[in-house]
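Lab notebook: predicted structure, single chain.

Context: the supervisor wants predicted structures on file for every construct in the current expression panel, including those that have not yet been purified. This is the next one on the list. No modifications to the sequence; it matches the entry in the shared construct table.
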Amino acid sequence: RAFMLKNKDKMDAVVGTGDEVAMTVMGIAMNAGIRVPDEIAFAGCDGISFSANPFMPLTTIASPHEAIGQAAFKLLHTQIKRKNTVITPKMQLTFKPELVVRKSTVS
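Prediction complete. Output recorded below exactly as produced.
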């Protein structure tokens, strides 16, 4: 809290490593009297359902959880079905996240 109050004029935005982190820090800032997003904007990464809370909806980079789960199942199922199939460290799947803009970054 003290750090935020001391440095709020030096910060435009805070991006948390996850939505929960961003929401926690945003709550501390709001309790310290910092106006979100007018003084400092906040965003997180995950896209958890709670980030859409009505109190202060958090901007987030939402991971496509369902697509990731389906791909993991498909790879595991293939590996079980074909016992000689090996998933190598070189295998790489790419998933497109979605930027969900909410009130924590836009007034």
